[in-house]
Amino acid sequence: MLNTAITDVVPAPKNLRFSEVTQTSFRAHWDHGAPDVALYRIGWTKKGETNFQYVRQPSRWFALK
Fold it and tell me: Whole-model pTM?
């Protein structure tokens, strides 16, 4: 059986803001760009390393350190 599916581009989060900002960390807050968004992929770099964190609904914030 062969099937095809077409998916739309995931809308960006809305109302992105930051709090608890220090020299080594911060907290990011957002509102979901659409009700059917299952997760956002948040990426950041620190001293040449790349780390990725998957944030699933209903999360609307993440602390980056």
Answer: 0.64
